[in-house]
Amino acid sequence: MGAVSTEVLDEVAVIRIDNPPVNALSNDVIAGIHAEVARAAANPAARAIVMVGAGRTFVAGADIKGLEGMAWGDMSGAPDMHDTFELIEDCPKPVVMAMHGTALGGGLELAMAGHYRVASRDARLGQPEVNLGIIPGAEGTQRLPRLVGVEKALEMCVSGRPISADDALHAGLIEWIVDGDLVAGAVSLAREKADLPGPPRRTRERTDKLPPPSALPAMLEVGRALAAKTKKHLEAPRVVVDAIAAAATLPFDQGRVRERELFFECARSEQAKALIYAFFAERTVAKVPGLPAEPPPPVTSVAIVGAGTMGGGIAMACANAGITVTLTDTEQGFVDRGLATITRNYEASVTRGRLTPDEVRTRLDRIRTQAGAAPFDNADVVIEAAFENMAVKQEIFRRFDAGTKPGCILATNTSTLDIDAIASATSRPGAVVGLHFFSPANVMRLVEIVRGRDTAPATVAAALALAKRLGKVGVVVGNGFGFVGNRLMLPYMYEAQFLAEEGATPQQVDRVLTDFGMAMGIFAVDDMAGLDVAWRVRQERPPFAAGMRQPLVADVLCEMGRFGQKTGAGWYRYADGRKAEADPEVENLINRRAREGGIARRAISDAEILDRLMLTLVNEGARVLEEGIALRASDIDVIYLTGYGFPAFRGGPMFYADRRGLADVHRRVSELHAQHGARWQPAPLLERLAREGSTFRQLDAARAN
Ligand code: T1G
């Protein structure tokens, strides 16, 4: 209970919650709050109560560690705040909640049990539970509609998106925005409310914001439509509508029981297991053994060589994070075009209301452009984002070596080339690291941090810190061909093409994948990325071992100039530039090439398509794990969740395999091996874990200890 303490200021008991890093509500913290509120209520020296979070935020929610246990059946961590919230709400002295940072989930529910709420101007308040596959479980679905109305409560709980203090003030969720000393502001409000006659109003008794019964169905319909549209595959957003409906139709005590039932239903769901796993997996990637304890020096200046799509996107990501950027290329024309693209992208953000013109101006002012050999001498990090050619990259790294200050990080954005070969062009391979951004680099959260044989731990730590500073997820991977993401993507893409040769159509394959929850089908992805990208890789470094089956159609499409969206046709045709339409010409070509290849076409079930594509990812993932190219199975999952559109409610390919059972996965892979030959050879690690009755998650846990 040490995490909760009280100090009396101006006759007000200020209860401070101090449970770093985000004041999560563990059962101990809840007990501490309960004890301190009871003491303050009985303390004659206190006429009112203020509750505040220590450190950078108010309470950011229930302890998700406890929720993780619940998802797997251990109910000891189930948050039960009812008695404490009732003690707060029934307190005869006014209780003012003072919020800063992120008052989320159980944190906002705690605040709503108070009689009044104030917030700092930059505070954000929300019920993000659906992002974890659950719904608010501490009466939030019952109090929020009573404070802001059903429509706003539906929008907040279905989207899971926090709102600003301004929005909260306008909606009636808070009474006041405090500029300056938050506690002092809250204390003064508490003293003012203590002078009012009668007991403080209880949120649970407020009905003025609840709609008349006749208006409710239409509101709930809007909530359900929002869930169906924005959270298509998720169960919790639909369930939370039912919980909010209970707030508007049942007395509070019955409504909260209904909420609790629905909360436990969701808390034990497969989606909650996966989404909570994904939450922690994304935060585990930064835990890389052997890195220096002290934090790396801050990055204030970055120089980028290559003003193309990637270089421009990386420059935006840096400018967005407040870092000064020098963007260079060989010719002024390339630099001008790069800056024009960046400007156009920012202007689009203004049009969409994401940025103000002033914010864009500030960010553009951080980007300096220069043609030719630019000075790198004051850069903390230099990033090469030039043509995917080894000689070009080595020449640039020779310039980095000669022109940068000691301690500068020398990074390459290469997606396929050997980091060690690039590093060999410098006298300081320890400073060389891969920063494999994903296009568009100013949007995609994933960065693969590729460590070469000689990359120093301090360089890896600096790269991780830069990724976090850019608001990205930096995953450390080994220097194998395709690193991790593309290493799995290539066999996945070719297996899809083999399925098309054997009888499936590109649109059937893509439908199966999007029905599974993938953001895009693989043929649509290939058309978007450009078929020529993989074509060039096949020509420069054929990815097929001797005797391995090779795709029969992709090269022919490239020889026809069908590179995908950018040429108006690839696997699909794009009559209006972006909408993919099945193309009979492609179907005829596939039929012809299959015939020429002696492949007897047949109807292929959706189940077989899903099996072969998912298990390709899993089997290759097991190989990558075994080779040490990925530190953890969960890192592979994070790469697929943040860089390849894999659905978070399935946890990632490795988590999916665990949930399916590795014995079944191994059985199925062995069947496919018997049917299709060498490429389906079960990875030895998969074979071992299946034999031991283990899981990838247990392997990760064992390695972490
Ligand atoms: N419980 C436990 N640990 C948490 C946590 C939580 N709620 N939130 C964050 N952490 C840890 C996180 O694992 C990391 O640990 C560190 O804090 C910094 O996090 C009853 C049931 C608050 C916006 O969903 O959105 O309440 O890696 O890297 O980028 O109805 O954390 O350092 O060891 O993300 O500054 C609802 C989840 C829970 C909020 C801060 N609340 N957290 O972002 O830091 S369910 C949430 C966040 C609930 C009630 C229901 C973010 C953040 P480590 P970070 P950040």
Structure description:
- This protein has 705 residues and is an alpha/beta fold.
- Helix 5 packs across helix 10 (236-249) and helix 19 (485-502) packs antiparallel against helix 25 (606-626).
- It has 30 helices and 19 strands.
- The strands form 4 sheets. It has an 8-stranded mixed sheet, sandwiched between helices.
- Helix content is 50%, strand content 12%.
- It starts with a strand and ends with a helix.
- The protein has 3 domains: 4-268, 2-enoyl-CoA Hydratase, Chain A, domain 1; 301-480, 3-Layer(aba) Sandwich (Rossmann fold); 486-628 and 632-704, N-(1-d-carboxylethyl)-l-norvaline Dehydrogenase, domain 2 (Orthogonal Bundle), CATH 1.10.1040.
- The structure holds (2S,3S)-3-hydroxy-2-methylbutanoyl-COA.
- (2S,3S)-3-hydroxy-2-methylbutanoyl-COA (T1G) is lined by residues 21-22, 24, 60-65, 67, 79, 102, 104-106, 109, 128-129, 132, 134, 136-138, 140, 283.
Give the SSE map:
Elements lengths: L3 E6 L2 E6 L9 H16 L5 E6 L10 H8 L10 H8 L5 E5 L2 E3 L1 H8 L2 E5 L3 E3 L13 H9 L1 H10 L3 E2 H7 L4 E3 L3 H13 L21 H15 L5 H14 L2 H16 L2 H15 L16 E5 L3 H12 L3 E6 L2 H20 L5 H9 L1 E5 L9 E4 L5 H14 L5 E4 L6 H5 L8 E6 L8 E6 L5 H13 L3 E6 L6 H18 L3 H11 L5 H8 L1 H10 L13 H6 L12 E2 L7 E2 L1 H13 L9 H21 L6 H11 L9 H8 L1 H15 L7 H9 L3 H9 L1
Parallel strand pairs: 2-3, 3-4, 4-6, 5-7, 6-9, 10-11, 10-13, 11-12, 13-14, 14-15, 16-17
Antiparallel strand pairs: 1-2, 7-8, 15-16, 18-19
Helix pairs in contact: 1-3, 2-12, 4-5, 5-6, 5-10, 6-9, 6-10, 9-10, 10-11, 12-26, 13-14, 19-25, 20-25, 25-28, 28-29
Bound molecules: (2S,3S)-3-hydroxy-2-methylbutanoyl-COA.
